[in-house]
Request: fold
Amino acid sequence: MLSDPLFILAALAVLAVAGVLAIGIGGFARGGAFNARNGNRMMRWRLGLQAVAVVLIVAFVVLRGQG
Reply:
């Protein structure tokens, strides 16, 4: 499974979601100018990356589950 490119892509997408989520939570916790400037942007990035991650995970399950 670790050699499957679709699995690796899905795992990277999940890690990207976690990274953006961590940055967003950190900015929210600190508050201030960074959160005011980037809070909504981080939420939009997280939602977009999360959608991509879900599509990749579903594609992996569907394509590899048939075999």
